[in-house]
UniProtKB/TrEMBL annotation:
Identification of the protein by name: Protein tyrosine phosphatase
UniProt family annotation: Belongs to the low molecular weight phosphotyrosine protein phosphatase family.
Active site (catalytic residues): 7 (nucleophile), 13 (nucleophile), 118 (proton donor)
InterPro entries linked: LMW_PTPase (IPR050438), Ptyr_pPase (IPR023485), Ptyr_pPase_sf (IPR036196), Tyr_phospatase_low_mol_wt (IPR017867)
UniProt keyword terms in alphabetical order: Hydrolase, Protein phosphatase
Top-level taxon of origin: Bacteria
Span of domain Phosphotyrosine protein phosphatase I: 1-144
Any single Pfam family the record assigns to this protein: LMWPc
A GO term, aspect molecular function: protein tyrosine phosphatase activity
């Protein structure tokens, strides 16, 4: 299964989600392919400094992350597309309405309400809170996939 995480710039939330999910896949010896992209990403940007620091605290290395803009090819090549917010989901579906059966917010997909708030510009604690929210949602994600 190919899972794509989507946010705005692909330097904070989706980058951390990708790192957390890849670590989960590796630790559990799963075969899922994990990637991330941003609706307005600048190709080649690195993970934000605080995202990298918080991931390092969790034992996850995103120092080599390279931001990718969201493309039709990435969308078509993914089995599940998980956005960080309802607005991200709506933006994807506005351009690609045919993908409605595989685009969800991350929290929606795991049966929760709300969005993953953007930590951009926040201090380390804001990033930690975001990373912890992502970690719980991603654990729930893989539990749901396992059960289906």
């Amino acid at each position: 299964m190919k899972i794509l995480f989507v946010c705005t710039g692909n330097t904070c939330r989706s980058c951390m989600a990708e790192g957390i999910a890849k670590a989960y896949v590796e630790a559990n010896k799963l075969q899922h392919k994990i990637s991330s992209a941003g609706l307005y990403a600048f190709a080649g940007d690195s993970a934000s400094l605080n995202a990298a620091r918080v991931m390092e605290e969790m034992g996850i290395d995103v120092s080599c992350h390279i931001a990718k803009p969201l493309t039709k090819e990435l969308l078509n090549d993914s089995d599940i597309i998980l956005t960080m917010t309802k607005a991200h989901k709506e933006a994807v579906l506005k351009v690609y309405p045919s993908l409605h059966n595989k685009v969800f917010t991350l929290l929606e997909y795991v049966g929760k309400n709300g969005d993953i708030s953007d930590p951009f510009g926040g201090d380390l604690q804001v990033y930690r809170n975001c990373a912890n929210q992502l970690k719980i949602a991603i654990e729930n994600l893989f539990q749901k996939i396992k059960e289906s």
